[in-house]
């Protein structure tokens, strides 16, 4: 008997929609609320990482609200029931949000790396520069999508276009010239969109791993000396503030 996986997929999408929407809405509400309601209590927490997390939550929420419903409609109706222009628009917006989301994750990892390398600095990146980084993530994502979005002919290559892809039953990139071959120049754009954040994340973890190990060893040594009475509690507190991130 042939198994119909459509309903399993729809239920899964509904769960993602509900959990993701609630979680990201709470994040976008809680962070500004704490900043406004307790301006003196969480001053050190309103930093570059916090701002980038807000952007990440906004991207996730936007993808859930603007991307998932149109995917669900296709599976509900077993086909596209909206216009070609709506299909183009939803695919464009979804990809723009995806790439901005990926870049934001990479930026968070990079900022955490800088914070770990400079534990005594209250802010490794100013709020103004963080805002510029957020704007850059959106601008960069939009620029690399221009050849696909507006079907710009660059270097005489087939960059595909946004529309309904019958092969995958989804509003996505599609090219009648290369769909049968399974390759398109748009794959180069996807590579950039995934490689840049991946590189930032790998770089951050390669740098943070030895630093974290060094701090763990120093912390273990400090606790041992404190237990043996070789150093005072006052000095240990100062050193602990240096070791923490």
Describe it.
By secondary structure, the protein is mainly α. It has a single domain, classed as Rhodopsin 7-helix transmembrane proteins (Rhopdopsin 7-helix transmembrane proteins, Up-down Bundle), CATH 1.20.1070.10. The chain is built from 7 helices and 2 strands, in the order αααααββαα. It has a two-stranded antiparallel sheet with strand order 1-2. The termini are far apart. About 2% of the residues have low confidence.
- Percent of residues in beta strands? under 5%
- Helix coverage percent: 55-70%
CATH superfamily membership, which one? Rhodopsin 7-helix transmembrane proteins
Please mark out the parts with pLDDT under 50 across 5 or more consecutive residues, or reply none.
178-183
Write the layout of secondary structure elements.
Layout: H1 6-37, H2 48-66, H3 68-77, H4 84-117, H5 127-149, E1 161-165, E2 170-174, H6 186-227, H7 233-243
Antiparallel strand pairs: 1-2
Helix pairs in contact: 1-2, 1-3, 2-4, 2-5, 4-5, 4-6, 5-6, 6-7
Short summary:
The protein has helices at residues 6-37, 48-66, 68-77, 84-117, 127-149, 186-227, 233-243, and strands spanning 161-165, 170-174.
Which features does this protein show?
single chain; 245 residues; mainly alpha; Rhopdopsin 7-helix transmembrane proteins; two-stranded antiparallel sheet; 7 helices; globular
